[in-house]
Each structure stands twice: as structure tokens, then as C-alpha cells.
Amino acid sequence: MLRSLIAFIWLITILISVTKAQEPLLEISQGVLQGSVFQNRDGGTLYGFRRIPYAQPPIDDLRFKAPVPADGWEGIRDAANDMPSCTQFSVGYPDIISGQEDCLYLNVFIPALPSQNSTKKPVMVYIHGGGFFSGDGTNLLTGPEFLLTKDIILVSIHYRLGVFGFINFEDSDLGVPGNAGLKDQVLALKWVKENIADFGGDPDNVLIFGTSAGSISVHLHMVSPMSTGLFSKVIGQSGVALFPTLISAKNTGVIFAEHLGIQTANLTETLRTLREISAVDLSRTEASIEPENYFFATPNIELDSDQEAFLTRRPIDILLDGDYNHVSLLTGINDLEGLLMEVSALEQTGQSMLIEDFTEFIPEDLEIAAGSEQERALAQKIKNFYYGDNEPTRDNIMPAVDLYTDFLFAFPAYRAVLKHAESVNDVFFYYFTADTDLNIKNMVRPQFREFVGAAHTDELGYMFKTAVTPVIEEGSVEDLAIRSVVNFWTNFATYGNPTPDDSLGYKWEPVKENNFNYLHIGTGFNELNLNPRSENIAFWSQIYDEFFPRK
């Protein structure tokens, strides 16, 4: 019996040793990584190197501050396991706090181990969404098996969220001017620039892409001087830097401290106290603020200080002046973006959304005085356009879905794209309406299947394998849609053009100043067209033509 047990243990040890020996080793400037081997959706071999630190843990005195580059390590670092998510609360479940502060890691996935003779591959860096207070880039949500059917390298990064990444103090002596989460992203991009060649990637052919807050992030990198030279192309999925409620208030650190009952007469002591409170308690407090102030801790316009700033002016002013990073852009929206707000309403109140105050839909950059007759008249105009003679009810949510879609996503994207189209760099636009079993709403929230179309983030189901991705039949509408989206995205990463040749029988034309070309990505079809959501865009264009103070 004892001999059998010893033999069994010996066999298991040998098997583990053999398995470890088969796992890939790769040396970078920080040290040696031992990754893992798995397969893409077509059965091809992939290599993953996970949980690579790009910054020192942002804890203790580094909490709320700009990130500091990570140190190296001795020996072989286990890079087979996924990275932890950053500390965050769950919308609708404020007592559920997940993640950890020590979270500034990234994952790298490659289709082949590099060799001296291999051609450098294009690199796609994914920045996850989640309203700047939630989300992650782990394999549960962003598996590489779809995108890496093509000859590209995929990097996914984590950045600090909520108050940990976006709290700010106006007192420059405190060294917390804000935008730490975006500065995390910049440091991750610098890491890619310096290290991706060791993985077989081309540091001069880096595309950044993201969805929702990740899409807003990549557009912010286009308007931030801090990010200059770190990427050559951008894909933004449902979100631009002109998002109406993006810019947070000043001195959110003081506001947050007051919610915690901390004195704010001496801000040095205030900051010290905030650093002594546990991450869980800070996140719970933020969760209590968010229902009243949905985007409490978000990017901010920094004041002058001795630190390098990420953003010092309004994004719209930077775009109007042309002072941004001029690179090729592919961006777009989904037709049911506004369904996101219905999801949020149900999670927080258990009821469908009900719009009661239409002044909330008057963009701040119109600078219309609160409480004025002009404000009341414009609010009524907005209500009439979407509801006609009807009153909003909880049973009639489609006008609200359309309003939120246009206000938060469609018109901001339209404004941004028109400015970028004035550049020499190509700008491509898509309108996504595909509705199959791969839509996130259908996989995660089947009660929303009755709403035909693509909700916010639904396009992710066609580029990433997730923990809930169903079995995909070869030749099915889902299979063909994945291959179509993956082709467009990886072609753009490789060539700067989603249709670089005539193999599809059509060419996706870029937007021009007088021709808003776009590709309609639908269920089982792709169709070239002009002017998405034309009637709604014309309505908001007329409002901006009349009221926007800077022409």
C-alpha cells in the first residue's frame, strides 16, 4: 500500500514537471516569464503571459498618486494565472466589493513564440470599460481565442477604478491632481512600447481599443499630450471624450472625505486619513455616493502643477484647435446603447427607468443658464421630439432608450468624428445592430431579448470569448459574424484600413467632411450606407448650431 502511494506521488510529480517544462519561457527586461499554452477557436496554438506587473502596487503612500514603474524580479515568474481585478463595487449591490488595490498588471497573448527571423506583429492593446468604476480585462470577459485567429498580439491591461483612480485635490502640494487611472494606462502603454518586441510585437504598430469607458479612454489618449507617440491607431467602441457627463467635479477628494466624516480643514491630514482607511470601506462609501452622482470619480481637468498632467483643457476645445494626436480612427455605436440605463434602473430600483426632468439632457457645453426660460424651452423641445404628445411612463421605455442613445453616444460620436475627418488621417465609422446568441444582453440578461438590436457592449461578444459564450456552430450566423468583426478589427490594426483589398467585394469608405460614410454591421449582413440615425442627428445638430458658444 505504501509503495503504491509513493509510486503515485512520484508519477504525479513527474507529470507536473513535464507539464511545467512544456510551458513557454520568455525573457523581458524585468526578468523571465513562464506562461501557458492553449488554443484559439480554430485549434491553433496560443501562448499567454499573464499578470505581468507594469507598475508598483499603488498602496500606502502611492494610493491616489500617479503610478511608478514596476521593479524586476529574480528567477522565473509564474505568468500562467490571470491578473486580479482592481478594487470595485457592484452596481445595485453596494456591499459586494471585489478586486484588490495591487492590480496594476497586464496580460500578453501571442500566436507564436518569437524568433530572430520572425516578422514583428501588429499589437492590439485593450482597455476595458465599466464607467471608470468597474470592469476588468481578465479571461472571464476578454478571452483572446477569437482575435488571435489572426497574426496579431493582444495585450489587456488593468487600471485603477473609482476613487482609487480618479479622486482629485486642487491643492498641488498634495500630489493628487487626478486622472491616476488614465496615467496607469499611459504607463502600461509605455511598458508595451519598451517590451513588446520581446514578445514578437512591433512597438511602432500599436493600436489601442476599448469599449464604453475604455472607448472614452482611448479617445482621451488621442487628446492627451502625455500619450503622444505611444500608439498609431485607435478603435473606439461606444464612447468618445465628448461624453456629456464625463468630466468630474473639482476637489472630489474633499467631497469624498466629507462623506466619510473626515475633517477637511487640514488637507494633508485629510489625505493621510484617506490612505489609512481600508480599500473595502472606501469602495463601500463610493457605492453610497454613486446612485446620486452616477459618475462621481471620473477623469478631470487638472490644474497647473509640477507634475506632468494628462488633461488640462476640455476635450472639445482640444479637438476644435486640432491639438490632438493625429492617428487613424475606427469608431462607432450600437443601436440600443440607451438600454444600458434601463439595466441600471432595474438594478438600482427594481423598476423601469422614468425620465422626469428633461433639463438633464441639455449638454453642459451649451452653457445655458440653469433655471432660465431658455433652459425650460429647450427641455420641452427635447421632450417633444422623443415623446411627441405622450408623457413618459415606465411602460414605454423605447423613447427613453433612443434619447439616451443619442445624448450619451450617437451625437457625441458624430461631433467627434466630423472633427477628426478634417485631418489627413482616415476615420471609419460603424453602426452595429447585430442580434444573435453572442450579444452580451442575450448571454447575460435574457429578459432583454425582446429588444431586437445591439445594446451597449454587445459587440464584445463577437471579438472576445467570455465565460458565458455558447457553443458556436461552424457556418452559423454567429460564426460568420465573429469572422467578419475579427477581420475588420485586425485588418485595421495591421493596415490602418478595415478592408485593405477587394476580397469582400466592397470597400469600407472613410468618413469625409461632406459624406458621413459608415458600415452597418447587422444580423447576417454588412452594408455600406450614409448618415446613421440621420433624423435624430439632425435634431441635435440644429440645437448645437443654435446654442453652442464656440463655432
TrEMBL record:
Residues 23-540 form the Carboxylesterase type B domain. It is an enzyme of class 3 (hydrolase). Belongs to the type-B carboxylesterase/lipase family. Residues 1-21 form the signal peptide. SUPFAM superfamilies: alpha/beta-Hydrolases (SSF53474). GO terms for molecular function: carboxylic ester hydrolase activity. InterPro entries: AB_hydrolase_fold, CarbesteraseB, Carboxylesterase_B_AS, Carboxylesterase_B_CS. Its EC number is 3.1.1.-. Keywords: Disulfide bond, Glycoprotein, Hydrolase, Serine esterase, Signal. This is Carboxylic ester hydrolase. It comes from the Eukaryota. PANTHER family: CARBOXYLIC ESTER HYDROLASE.
